[in-house]
């Protein structure tokens, strides 16, 4: 028996995707293609081992009936191998070994009955155990890489649906001049695409690593299969040496043929025949920053102004810093952070500005009164109007925010509103408030007195609290606010 050699082969040349600066968000490849190929190859090896197992079993039975009955042994290897295209058809491989077995079996029709018991008790179990190992390998492939492919397909389907939703509502924005629901805001939808696309890329890269691990392990597993075959055939030779000289010579030739198969012979041929399908382990993984998708930079997705503001709490009366955005769809959205990747960027608060009232600026402070429509039309119908006190980091930043909000707000007043907003309850209302004369200003305390009261009740700290937005300055399309230390007026 020759010493087993290590399996060596050149890596496949196919990459998982064509690399470019801009990549498709949803690749057109079949994620299960590699898994199917390896599953089919395992089937080929399983059938190859089954041929050997059947051969030895039939040999044992044939020893009971000698010459004529031994023709049954020949029938077990008469037909071509199942999935035979996976094996090299040239001499020196698995296909050549079976051809050699067919020719020698024809000449050993006078085997002895005494060897039947030894064949059944010692040789058949070797190939039976190998057969079981290949079956277990198939189950491992299905439960491992197979599930990873399904996870990738599911993540891609979710991303595709969100991209299509973004395309639908960006088109609605263009045709309806930006009048839409908060949940349909293209800015929100694009951030949702970012979130799902990031999860998709993680699933793709995880599946890719699983497939590379499977691919790398196959060379060693196939070497083990061939080595076990060689071992079984060696044991088979020892049993058959007690047979007649003709039988000994025939089986010696069959075993010699199997022993001469290099451990990497079939694997190298498999790599060459399938180098356009197998994954190249040296190819780089996908990167979220290199991917583009339709309507990624549509004008409806670009905020009119964004940054951190301090909002006065209803109970503790202290200021809390959050990330705020005014979108072209005339929504003022509140987020805990501007990070799209950590979690799905769903607004904590959404105000439809044409249905809101904004008071005057007093230093760093201004108030906005309206209904939270972040839960959609149904939820917004049951929500109450709230007067929200905002505080910018600097008076200049406050003026920038106030100017952008004023242009979209339904009512601008010098008084601080204290009663529910008149007009529509939701962004879907057909008659939003656009001028001061449509709503009588509410008789409340002046802006200056209200601002001083807010300062006395709770003085905000200068440090940004954990979980607050990363940016520290408000940015608008025409200009940017200069960040300043928050806390004091």
TrEMBL record:
Domain PH residue range list: 302-410
CDD domains from the UniProt entry: PH_Slm1 (cd13311)
Keywords, comma-separated and alphabetical: Phosphoprotein
Cross-referenced InterPro entries: AH/BAR_dom_sf (IPR027267), BAR_4 (IPR046868), PH-like_dom_sf (IPR011993), PH_domain (IPR001849), SLM1/RGC1-like_PH (IPR046869), Slm1_PH (IPR043453)
Low complexity composition bias: residue spans: 462-489
Compositional bias per record (Polar residues), positions renumbered to this chain: 1-19, 414-429, 439-456
SMART domains: PH (SM00233)
Region annotation (Disordered) ranges: 1-28, 414-489
Full protein name: PH domain-containing protein
Species in which this protein is naturally found: Decorospora gaudefroyi
């Amino acid at each position: 028996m020759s010493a087993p050699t290590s399996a060596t082969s050149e890596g496949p040349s196919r990459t998982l995707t064509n690399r470019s600066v801009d990549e498709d968000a949803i690749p057109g490849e079949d994620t299960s293609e590699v898994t199917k190929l390896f599953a089919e190859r395992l089937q080929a090896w399983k059938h190859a081992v089954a041929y050997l197992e059947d051969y030895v079993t039939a040999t044992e039975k044939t020893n009971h009936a000698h010459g004529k009955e031994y023709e049954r042994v020949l029938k077990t290897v008469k037909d071509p191998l199942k999935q035979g295209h996976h094996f090299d058809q040239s001499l020196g491989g698995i296909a050549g070994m079976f051809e050699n077995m067919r020719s020698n079996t024809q000449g050993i029709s006078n085997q002895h009955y005494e060897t039947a018991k030894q064949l059944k008790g010692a040789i058949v179990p070797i190939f039976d155990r190998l057969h079981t190992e290949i079956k277990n390998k198939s189950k491992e492939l299905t439960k491992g890489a197979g599930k990873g492919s399904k996870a990738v397909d599911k993540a891609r389907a979710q991303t595709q649906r969100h991209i299509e939703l973004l395309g639908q509502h960006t088109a609605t924005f263009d045709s309806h001049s930006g009048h839409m629901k908060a949940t349909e805001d293209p800015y929100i939808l694009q951030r949702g695409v970012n979130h799902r696309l990031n999860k998709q890329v993680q699933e793709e890269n995880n599946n890719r690593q699983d497939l590379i691990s499977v691919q790398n392990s196959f060379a060693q597993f196939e070497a083990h299969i061939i080595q076990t075959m060689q071992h079984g055939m060696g044991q088979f030779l020892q049993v058959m040496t007690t047979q007649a000289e003709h039988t000994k010579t025939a089986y010696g030739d069959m075993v010699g043929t199997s022993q001469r198969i290099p451990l990497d012979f079939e694997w190298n041929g498999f790599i060459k025949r399938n180098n356009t399908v197998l994954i190249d382990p040296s190819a780089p993984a996908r990167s979220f920053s290199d991917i583009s998708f339709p309507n990624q930079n549509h004008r409806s997705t670009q905020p009119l102004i964004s940054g951190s503001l301090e909002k006065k709490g209803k109970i503790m009366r202290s200021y809390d810093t959050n990330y705020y955005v005014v979108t072209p769809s005339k929504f003022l959205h509140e987020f805990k952070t501007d990070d799209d990747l950590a979690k799905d960027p769903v607004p904590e608060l959404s105000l439809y500005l044409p249905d809101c009232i904004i008071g005057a600026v007093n230093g760093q402070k201004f108030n906005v009164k309206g209904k939270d429509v972040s839960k959609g039309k149904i939820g917004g119908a049951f929500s109450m109007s709230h007067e929200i006190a905002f505080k910018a980091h600097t008076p200049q930043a406050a003026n920038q925010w106030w100017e952008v909000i004023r242009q979209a707000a339904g009512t601008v007043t010098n008084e601080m509103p204290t009663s529910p907003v008149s007009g529509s309850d939701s962004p879907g209302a057909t008659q939003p408030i656009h001028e001061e004369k449509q709503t009588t200003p509410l008789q409340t305390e002046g802006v200056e007195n209200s601002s001083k009261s807010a300062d006395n009740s709770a003085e905000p700290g200068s440090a940004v609290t954990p979980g607050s937005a990363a940016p520290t300055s408000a940015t608008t399309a025409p200009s940017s606010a200069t960040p300043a230390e928050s806390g004091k007026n």
